[in-house]
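Continuing the series of single-chain predictions for the mutant panel. This is the parent chain; the variants come on the following pages.
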Amino acid sequence: MLDLPCLLNITATLDWRARKAEQFPDDERNKKALEIFQRIEPEIAVLSGSPLHLRILTFATDERFGGEVGFILRRVGFGVFPCSGEALLEEILAQLELRCRSTGRLFAVS
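Parent structure:
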């Protein structure tokens, strides 16, 4: 089973956001997003194997999983401000479940 930071590509997202903060130093949103990721990255790692992790895994085999997760991660600091790693995982799960319901197609596997 992939650990959560690897499954969600958290480290790469954190690195990307750091580059964006450097590239656009006047845009405080990138700095805020970077601060959020730096704070919650260790919290997410601790949640590997948790019930939230297992629920997110049910969506991981869908070809759209990476794109959906990436969309949410890119919004951190730009409309999504999770107070914890758990809050971010809950947001990701809610969006995955919403997408599943709205498309009317099987997105998750049992």
